[in-house]
Amino acid sequence: CGDLMSPPVYLTADSAVRDAFRAMHDHRYSGLPVVDEAMRVTGYVDLLELALRYLAELPEPGDTPSASSGG
């Protein structure tokens, strides 16, 4: 038999989208609370919100990398 309680899983305001997806996947959660420094819940992020944030970070179609990238 496994543990009855698992350690708390949460995000902070500065958590990366990648880390939030990973935490949800690893723990099989569809959303997680966002907490502040005092561990007070200040919000909630679900998979749809993360998907929208991820899509907002993608370059627009037709955008090209900047010339300063050295590519």
SSE order in H/E notation? Answer: EHEEH
Unreliable stretches, pLDDT < 50, 5 or more residues? none
Taking all Cα atoms into account, the compactness measure Rg is 17 Å
- State the share of residues found in helices, binned by percent: 25-40%
Secondary-structure content class:
alpha+beta
- Count of individual helical segments: 2
**Major sheet size, sense and barrel closure:** 3 strands, mixed
Shape: elongated
Which percent band covers the strand fraction? 15-25%
Q: Separation of termini?
A: 54 Å
Number of DSSP strand runs: 3
Main sheet: strand order: 1-2-3
- Average pLDDT over all residues: 88
Please describe what this structure looks like.
The N and C termini lie far apart (54 Å). This protein is of the alpha+beta class and 71 residues long. The radius of gyration is 17 Å and the shape is elongated. The protein has helices spanning 17-27, 47-57; strands at 11-12, 31-35, 41-46. Helix 1 links the parallel strand 1 and strand 2 (31-35). It has a 3-stranded mixed beta sheet. It has 2 helices and 3 strands; from the N terminus they run E-H-E-E-H.
